Queue: 2 jobs
Job 1
Amino acid sequence: MGMFLTGLLAVLNIKTLILMIIGVAVGIIFGSVPGMTATMAVALFIPVTFSMDTIPGMAVMIALYVGGISGGLIPAILLNMPGTPSSIATTFDGYPLTQQGKGGKALGTAVVVSFFGGVISFLILSFASPLLAKIALKFGPFEYFSLMLFALTIIATVTRGSFIMGIVSGLIGMVFTFVGMAPVDGVDRFTFGLYQLKGGFSLLPVLIGLFAVSEIFKAAESGFKEEIQEVPEVSGFGMTFQEIKEQAVNIFRSGVVGTIVGILPGIGGSTASILSYSQAKKASKTPEKFGTGIVDGLIASEAANNGLTGGALVPLLALGIPGDSTTAVLLGALMIQGVQPGPLLFRSNPDVIYGIFGALLIANVIMLLIEFFGIKIFINILKVPKSILLPIVFITCALGAFAVNNTLFDVWVVIIFGILGYVLSKFGIQLAPLIIGFILGPMAEGNLRRALMLSSGSITPMFTKPISLLFVVATVISVGSVIYKSFKNKNKEESNILA
Amino acid sequence: MAKKRIGFGIFLILFCTIAYIMTYSIPQRVQMEVSAAFFPRVVLIALAVSALLVIIGGLKEYRLEKVQIKKEEKGEFHYKLLVLSLINCLGYGILLKPLGFVFTSSVFLILQMWLMTADITKKIFIRNTILSITVVVALYVLFTTVFYVPLP
C-alpha cells in the first residue's frame, strides 16, 4: 500500500498531470479518427518523452494508451465505424442506440463503463500482476489454440439471422488471412508472385475498408438521401446510479474478461471486447435483444477494451512480454528510458512500477472527465451532413492505412475491402463475423501448427492439458447450445409460416 | 434473397475448389509436422460444406417464399451514383502516387461531396471546395511536419 501511494504521488504533480491531460486528449483524438490507433499515438509521441524523467514519460505514454483505446467508442457509437480495432463490438449495440436517438446516453454509458473497466484492470494489475504473469506463462500453443477455438464460437453469438451465414462470413474472414507468408515457417501462400502480398493484409486497412469505406457505397446505392439526425439532449453521464447497480455484474465480468485477455500476450483488444460481448449475451435474460441497441452489449464491449489496458501491462511489466501492439511500443519507450521490464523490475525499480500503476488510475480519471465534458461536443458530429463526413472519413482512412506501413498497397486494401464489404453485405454476409474470423484465424493457425510441432503431430495434448481441456469443453458447450437454439428457432419459424 | 443465396453458395463452392487446388502449389518445408497448406485446406473444406448448406437453405427458403406471399418494399437503387462513387474511389487509388496526396485528395473530396449532395447550389459547391482543400492541406501538414509520415 505504501509503494502504491508513493507511485500515485509521483504522478500527482502539476507538470505530470498537465502532460497526462494532453496525452489523454491526443489519445482520444487518435482513437476517434477512423484509421488512426492508440498504437500510432504512443509511437508518434515516444520522441517527445526522450527528455522527460522515467515516471512522467511513462505517464504520458499510459495517458495516450488509455485515451487512444477509449476514443474509439465515439465513431463506433455515432457513425457505426470502429475508431480502433478494440471498438468493433461497440458498434453492435452503440450505433443502433444512436439510430434510436439515444446517442448521448450511449456515449455517456460507454464513457462511464470504460472508466470502470480501467479501474477494474488497475486493481487487478496492482494486486496480482506477478501471480497473473505466472499463470499466463502456463499458456502454451495448445492452450492458445483451444482458447482461439472457444473465441471463434463468438461468431455464432454476434451473428444476426442465419447462423450458417455467420459461419460462412467467419470462414471468408479466415480465407483472407491465408494471403501472404504462413505463420511459423513463413512459406508464401496465394501471393500470385506479387511482393506486396507477401506481408498479407494488415488488420487496420481491412477493418476500416469493411466498416467505414463500404458506408460510402451503401449511401450511394440509396441515392445519398441526407438524413439529418436529431441531436439528442445530453445530461449527466447517461447512466443513473440505479442502472450502474443493475449492470454491476456485467461491468465487473467484462472488465475482468478484458483484463484476462490483455494478460495473454498477442491476443489484443478486439478479441477482448468481442469475447466479453459474447459472454454478456450468453448471460443475458434477453439475448435476442443484443445487436438491436441494448446497453448491456455496449457495456460489455467498452468495459472490456479498457480493462485490457491494465491487463496488457501485466506481462509487459512482470515478464517483459508485450500483450499487444501498443504495449510493444510501450516496451520500447521503457527501454529507451533505461528501464528493463521483467521479473526483476518489481525489486529493482518499484518506483517505476507503482508510478505506472498510479498513472493508469489517473489516466482513467482524466479520460472520464475529458470524455464526460466532451460528450456535448462529440454528439454534434451527428449534425455534420453525411455528404461531407463520409468523404472526409474516406481520406482519413486512406491516410491512416498509408501510415501503418508507409505503402500505397494499404490504401488499395482499404478501397478493395470497402468494395468487398459492400458486395458481401448484398449477399447477406455480415461484417462482424468476417472480421472476427480475420482476427482470430491467424492466431488459431499459428498456435495449432506450433502445438503440433511440439507434440510431433499429435492432437492428444489438447485434451490432456487441463487449461486446454477447459476451453475445449467450453467450446463444445457453446457450439452445442447455439446449434440447439438455432434448430429450435428455425422449426418454430417454419411451423408458424406453414400454419 | 433465396436466389441470391443459391448463386452465392455456388460461387463459394467454385471459389473453394479453385483455392483448394491452388494449395497444392504451396511449398512444403520437410521438417514441419503440418504443412502451410493444412489450415487453408481445412478452412476451405469447411467453407465449401457451409456453402452447400447455404444452397440447401436457399432452396428451402425459395419454397417458403412461394408459400408466403411477400410484399417487399424495395427502395430506389441508384446504379449511376454507385458506379460514379466506385470510379471516384478507384481513381483515387490510381492517381494518388502520380499526382500526390494534396491534389488527388482535394479532387476526390470535391467530386464525392458533389456526388453526395442532392440539391447542389453554387454556394454549397464553393463551400465544399474550400472545406475540401482546407481539410486536405491541414492533414498533409499534420502528417508530414508533426508525425513525419512522408506522404506521396
Job 2
Amino acid sequence: MDLSLTDEQRLLKESVERLLMDRFGFEARQRFMAEPAGWSRALWQSYAELGLLGLPFEEKHGGVGGGPVETMIVMEAFGRALALEPFLATVVLGGGLLRRGADEAMRSALIPKIARGVLLLAFAHAERQSRYDLADVATTARRDGGGYVLDGAKTLVIHGDCADKLIVSARLAGARRDRDGLGLFVIDADAAGVSRRGYRTVDGLRAAEVVLSGARVGASEILGEPGKAFPLIAQVADEAIAALAAEAVGAMAATHEMTVDYLKTRKQFGVPIGSFQVLQHRAAEMLIALEQARSMALFAAMMVEEPDPTERRRAIAAAKVQIGRSGRFVGQQAIQLHGGMGMTMEYKVGHYFKRVTAIDALFGDADHHLAELARLGGLIGAREAK
Amino acid sequence: MDLRFTPDEIAFRDEVRAFMRDALPAPIRRKMVEARRLEKDDIVTWQRILNARGWAVPHWPVAWGGTGWSPVKQYIFHEELQQAPAPDPLPFGVNMVGPVIIAFGSEAQKRRHLPRIANLDDWWCQGFSEPGAGSDLASLKTTARRDGDSYVVNGQKTWTTTAQYADWIFCLVRADPAAKKQQGISFLLIDMKTPGITVRPIQTIDGGREVNEVFFDDVRVPVENRVGEENRGWDYAKFLLGNERTGIARIGTSKARIRRLKEIAALERAGDKPLIEDERFRTKIAAVEVELKALEMTQLRVVAAARERNEPDPASSILKIKGSEIQQAVSELLLEAIGPYALPEETHDDADRWNEPPIGPEWAGPLAPHYFNWRKVSIYGGSNEIQKNIIAKAILGL
C-alpha cells in the first residue's frame, strides 16, 4: 500500500494548479462565462499544451497514458478553481467512451483531435423519464440500409451545446428499461436531424437539450457490439463519478479554507467570530466531512478500474453517497457561517456551493447510490480492495 | 499510489489472520461476536497468548518486546485483531503507561514494569479524571506531599475503568501546590495494594460495573515511583493521550459488529420477510458502511503520513470522533434489529449463570446493554467536543 504521489503526479498537480492560479481567478471566471461558449477557448488550448486533454489516452493517440489518479489530481484542481471548461464532457465521458468502445480506426481518427483541443464531445444519454437509471433509454436506433436512424430526445447533455460530436445512446431492441439492446452512436452535432437548445446550468456551466428526428449515422459509427453498450455506459458513468468526486473535494476544500479565513477575520461583539466555540465546532465538523469525502474520492480513483463490475459499482456508489452528503453539509454550512456575504452572487463561496449541489445531481444523487449500494448488499462481506 | 497491499503485506495479513483464527479461544471469540462482556480472565488469557507469540506490544521498541513493524503492518495487525474479533491487549498498560515509561521512565521502572505489562502479569488502571477534573483535566486536585523518600497522596480519582482488577494505577497528582495549573502536576505509579486506597464501584446505565471511584487517604508512594521529573507530569499525560493513535477509530471492531448486525437482521423477521430485506433498514446499514469505508481510508491516509512524521497527528481527533460516531450508530442498529426484545433486562452479574432459557432470541440479550454502554465511546479519551476543540485549534488555527 502506498498513498503517496509519484514525482510525475506531483509535477502534474503543480503545473495544473499553477496554470489555474495564473489564468483562472474569480474575475476571469466571470469573464469566461460571458464568452460565446460560456468558457474560455484560449484556456482550453492551454490545457491541451499542458497535456491535460490527452490525459487518459494512449501515447500513440497523442495522449499521456494517465490513469484515474491523474484524473483525480486534475479534477481536484478544477474543483478548487471552479473551472468551466468541457473537460468532463470531452475527455472523461466522450473520451472514455471512445477509448474503451471505439474500434482502432475511430480511436486513431478522433482521440488525437481531443488531445490537441480541436474536437469537443458530449454524451447524449439521459432522457426526461430516466432520472438516474442508466438503462432507461427510449430513444430508438432503427437499422436502415447500411446504417442507423436515430429518433428521440436527450436531456441535460453536459456541454452538449458546444460539442462537435455527440455520442448518443439509443435502443436497438428490448423494453425501455432493459440493460440489453442499447447502442452508442457517434454523430456530428450539426448533422441533419439533430437539433440542440443550449442553456446555462445553475453552477455556471453549460448543457443542452438534444432532439434526434430521423438522424442518420453510418454502420461504422457505432461503438462496440450493437445492443451490448450497457456495461460500457456503466463503466464510463462510474469514471465520471470518480472524476466528479475529486472535483467536489477540490471545491469543498476551497470552501472550507474560505470559511475558516472568514471566521478569523470577521469581527462581531469586538472579537473574531472564530473565537466562538459553536462556530469552531461547526468548522471542525466541516473539516471532518471534507476529509471523509477526500478519502472516498481516493477510494473511487483506486476502485474505478476494478475488473469486477459489481465491486466497482459498490465502491463508486459509496463514494458518490459520501460526496453528496459531505458536499451538502460543507456547502450549506459555508453559506451559514459567511452570513449575508455567503448569499451574494459576487462572492465566490456561493458558487462553490452551487457546483457541489450540481455534482450531487449528476449521475445519481446520494440517495440513489445509497439505495443501489443497499441492494448490492453493502460493502462489508464484499471482497476488500486489498 | 496504490491501495493494494504489497505481496509481503498480504503474506503478513494472512499470517495474522490465521493466527487469530487458530489461537483465539472459542468462548472468548463467541463473547466478542455477541457483544457480551468479558471477564478479567478472558483478557488475561488472550493477552498472554499474544505475548507468547511476541505480539502483545507490537508498537513498543524491539528491545522491550516490540516487533519493529511498519505503520502499515501495525495497521493490518490491529485490523485483523479487531475483525477476528479478538480483545485488544489491555490499553491502560500497553498503550498508555507502557509508552510513557519507555519514553520518560527510569531504567529500574522499565525493567520492573514493561515485561509484566506485556504479559499482563500486572493489571493497570488510569488515575486521571477526578470529580472536578474531567474535560478540564489540569484542574485536578489530588495532592502528593513530599515526606522523606515518599510522597503522601490524598484525593480522589473517578471513572477508573477496571480498578477493581488492578494491581497498579498510574496517577496524575499535584506535588507542588504553589505551581499554576499545568505546571504543578506529576506522574506517579502506585501499587494498588498500598494501604489507604479504597475502590468503590460505579454502576453504569447498562448495569455493568467497569468503572470505579478510587480514594487515596495518606497513601505512601516511594519517590522512585515517580515517572520522569517532578512537575512535568502534564507533558507526559499529553504524550500519553496523543499516543493513542493506532486503532482509535476501531474500524475492525465496527466491521465485525456490522457483520453481526447483518447476521441478526437475516434472522429477525419484518412482516413476511427477513429484516435484512427491508429496504429502509438495509439502507440504514449501507449508510453506516459508507461512513466506515471513508473512515478506513482516512485511517490509511494517517497511517501513510505516519511514515513521515513522528509526533501525534491532530487528524487522530477525526478518527476518534468519526470512529465513535460509527460505533454508536452500529450499536443503535443492533438495538433496532431486535425490536421489542430490547426490553428484557439481562442482569450482567449472573448472565453466565442463568440456567433458564433467555427471553426472546438468544442473540438479543447483550444488545440493549451494549447500546447503553457504548454511549461512553464519545465521552472517554477526550470527549468528542474536546476533540473538536483540538481540531479547531491545532488544525484550523481558530
